[in-house]
Amino acid sequence: MTHNVNPHTSARPGDPVAAIDTPALVIDLDAMERNLAAMAAFAGERGLRLRPHAKTHKSAAIAKLQMAAGAVGVCVQKLSEAEALAERGVPDIYISNEIVDVGKLARVAALAGRVRLSIAVDSPTGIDRLAAALKAQGTRMDVLVEIDVGHGRCGIAPSSAGELARRVESHGLRFAGLQAYHGGAQHLRSPAERQAAIGHAAAQVRIAQASLAEVDVQCLLVTGAGTGTFALEAASGVWGELQCGSYVFMDRDYAENHLDPQPPGGGHVAFEHALFVKSQVMSVGAAHAVVDAGHKSHAIDSGMPRVWQGEFEFRNGGDEHGILTPATQVDASRPPLPTIGDTVWLIPGHCDPTVNLHDRYIGVRGGLSQGVVESVWAVDTRGCLT
Amino acid sequence: MTHNVNPHTSARPGDPVAAIDTPALVIDLDAMERNLAAMAAFAGERGLRLRPHAKTHKSAAIAKLQMAAGAVGVCVQKLSEAEALAERGVPDIYISNEIVDVGKLARVAALAGRVRLSIAVDSPTGIDRLAAALKAQGTRMDVLVEIDVGHGRCGIAPSSAGELARRVESHGLRFAGLQAYHGGAQHLRSPAERQAAIGHAAAQVRIAQASLAEVDVQCLLVTGAGTGTFALEAASGVWGELQCGSYVFMDRDYAENHLDPQPPGGGHVAFEHALFVKSQVMSVGAAHAVVDAGHKSHAIDSGMPRVWQGEFEFRNGGDEHGILTPATQVDASRPPLPTIGDTVWLIPGHCDPTVNLHDRYIGVRGGLSQGVVESVWAVDTRGCLT
Asked: What is the pLDDT of residue A5?
C-alpha cells in the first residue's frame, strides 16, 4: 500500500517558531506539561486511577508522558488506534467502545496477546462474539459493561448490567467493571447543568451496581468522566477511574464552560491552551484578511477557532481559508488588519478532530513568540477509523 | 519521518462489497465514470476547457481519468497538493489560490521546472515574491490574477485587474487570464439566486476585462465555476474554462440544490452519488441504533450525511458514532431499527473534506449491493495543508 503522508514536515527540531511553515499543528510543550502534571496531581491526591483518553492526542509519545506522570494506561475508541499505539510501545490500552464485527474481534483477540487490553460491551451479541474470538486465539482480556448514563448513544439500560455481566462471566471472561461516560454533560456551560447531569449519571451507576449485586457480581471499577465534569465524578465517590482527554490541550469549546464558583472537592484545576494552529495571512481585502487555514486545518464541529492574542473574529472561509475581521472598534492608532505574511495563531474549537487532520505535531519549547522547536511527533493514530 | 498511515486497508481487489471493513470510503466506479463522461461531454460540446478541481478527490488516479476524458489539467488549492500530484504523474496543474510565503514560493518555482504549472495572484507582494523565486530558479509559469466576483474571500477588486496584470508582465511573467470563482454561489438553493449571483460575477469579470483593456493587456482566459453553477458560467460567454470538482462524486449538499426548470444552454447534466461511507451498526438502544461512523469518517461542515436507501435520520454522535432513528412512521410489517452488524451506507454532506479524512478509496464495480472491489487507491493529497 502506498504511503500518502505529506513528505514536507513544517519544521525541524532547532528551528525558531518563526520558521514553522503554515498551516501547522503546534504544541506549547511547557503548557502541555503543566496540564499533564495538574491532572495527574488531581487524580493522585484523591486516590483515583487516571486513564486519559488517547482519542484526543492520538500519540504514543504523549501517552507515554501521561503514563510516566502516573496514568495506569490510556483509552481509545477504535481497534486500529489500539493496534497503532501497542505497536509503538503503549502497554495498557482500554477500548472504551463496542466492537461487534467478527473480523475486527479476531484482531482484538490477537492484540490481547501482545499488550494489556480491555474493552467495553453493551450487547449479548457483542459478548458472545468477543468470547468466541478470544477462545479461538487463546487470549484473555478484561471486559467492562457500558451503561447509558444519560448521553443516549451506546450502553445498555443500567438495570440490565447484571444480566450482561453474568453473560460475560458465563464465557469465563473477567468482568472488570462499568463504563459510565456522559459525553453530553461535558460541554453544558453552567456548573448547575453539569452537576445535574453527573448527579443523574451517578444515580444510573448506582442502579447498575444494584443490578450487579442482585446477581452476585462484584463491581470492581466504574470508569468514565471527561475534562468538563471530572471534578464532579471524582467527588461523587462512585467513579474509580477518570478518562479525561482534552485537558492535555484544552480547546476553545472547553474553555467556554463556566467555572464552578464552589468546585466539588475544593480547588479549581486550571488547564491552559496548549494546542494551536499556526496560520499565515495570504490575502488582504478592504475590510478583511484571509489566512491559509480553513476547516481542513481545524475541525469546526464545535464551532470556529478563536484567534489567540489578536483582536479578530474568525469566520469560516471553507476548507483552505479563514476570514479575519476586526473584533472590536478599530483603534485609530494601529492598523485594523494584519498584512500579508503575518502569523496568526488559532485555538481550535475542538482538539480531537483537529489533531486528526494533521500528520505531525510541532512541539515548541519557550512559548509561541520566542520559542524553539523541540520535537516533531507523528500523529500516530490519525485516520485510524476501523 | 515516521509514516503514520493506518496499515489496515479496508478491502482488497476482488473482495465482495460485504467484506469491506467499516468505516470505509467507497466509490461506486460505474456512477463516477458516468459523472466524468457527462461533464466532459458538457464542456466539449460547448468548446470550453475543463480543468476539474482536484481538491475534491485528492487523487492522481482520478485526475488522470479526468484528463483521459478530455480535461486540460487539474486545479489544486495548495502547493503540497501540486507537489504530490506532480510526483504521481499529473502533468498540468493550476494552483487556483494565492501563495505568498517566500519558502513556499521557492518550492513553487522548483516545481515549475518539472510540470506545466500555473498559479493565481491577488497582491503586488505576492507577484513580486513569485517573480523573484522564478528568477532565482530560472523557471517559468503562467500567472492568473484573481478577482473577487462576489464570494468576499481572496481576489482583488475587478477594477484593479489591469494594474496587477501589468505588474505581472513587468517582471517578464506571462499573464494568462483571470481567476473568477464564486464559491458562495454554489450552494444557493434556488436557480434564481444562483442566476443572480453568477450574473453579478459575470459583470465583475467584464469590469476586470475593461480594466485590462485600459492598460492594453490581453485577457486570454477567464477560469472558474463549480458544480452548482457551471451551466450558468458556460452560458454567459464570459468563462472559457470550468473548474468544477464535486461533480465527480456529488454530495448530499449539492444534491439539495433545486434544479433549474429552464437550464441555461439547454438540458440538465445529471450527476449521481458516487461516494459513500460504508458503516456498520455497533449498538442498538430502545429507540435508536448506533453506527461506527462519526465525524472522523465524514465531514459535517455542510451538515450530516444522508442514509442511502434506508429510512433513517442520521444524528451526530461525535467523532466515532452516528445515531440512527426511524425517519418515517414505523411500518408495523418491518423492524423499525437495524440490528447489530447491519451495513448502513452514508452519503457525505460535503465530499472534499470527507475524502480528506481517509487514507484510501475502495472502488467498487457492479453496485453497492452485489459489487466487487476493483481498485484501492490512495488519497494522495490527504493532509496536504501547506
From this structure: 57
Q: Is residue B1 part of a domain?
A: no
Give A-chain residues touching B3 at CB under 8 angstroms: 3, 5, 378
Minimum distance, in Å, between the CA of residue B46 and any CA atom of chain A: 30
Of B22, B55, B154, Cβ closest to residue A319? B55
A133 CB-near residues (< 8 Å, 6+ apart): A102, A105, A106, A108, A109
Residue A272 has pLDDT above 60, yes or no: yes
- Residue A384 in any domain: the answer is no
Please tell me whether residues B235 and B299 are part of one structural domain.
Answer: no
Cα separation, A149 vs A202, whole angstroms = 8
Q: Which residue among B97, B288, B340 sits closest to A100, beta carbon to beta carbon?
A: B340
Q: Which residues contact A267 (CB under 8 A, 6 or more apart)?
A: none
Domain of B235, CATH number, reads 3.20.20.10
Domain boundary among B201, B216, B251: B251
For residues A238 and A115, membership in a common domain is answered with yes
What's the domain count of chain A?
2
Cβ distance of B154 and A101 shorter than 8 Å: no
Domain edge (last residue) among A221, A253, A285: A253
Q: What pLDDT, in 10s, does the model give residues A246-268?
A: 999 999 999 999 988 888 877 67
pLDDT (0 to 100) of residue B1: 35
Looking at the structure, tell me whether residues B37 and B155 fall in a common domain. yes
Whether residue A330 is predicted with pLDDT greater than 70 in this model: the reply is no
**CA B361 to CA A84: how far, in whole Å?**
21
Place of cell 499488550: A115
Same structural domain, A188 and A119: yes
Mean pLDDT, residues B111-118 taken together:
98
Domain around A60: 30-253
Is B317 inside any structural domain?
yes
Contact B286 A183 (CB under 8 A): no
Torsion-angle region of residue A47: left (phi > 0), alpha (psi -120 to 50) or beta?
Answer: left
Q: Are A22 and A42 in contact (CB under 8 A)?
A: no
Chain-chain contact of A385 with B358 (C-beta, under 8 angstroms): yes
Q: Indicate the range of A329-343, B56-70, B369-383 predicted with least confidence.
A: A329-343
**pTM for the full predicted model:** 0.96
Per-residue pLDDT at A260: 86
Show residues of chain B in contact with A61, CB under 8 Å: none
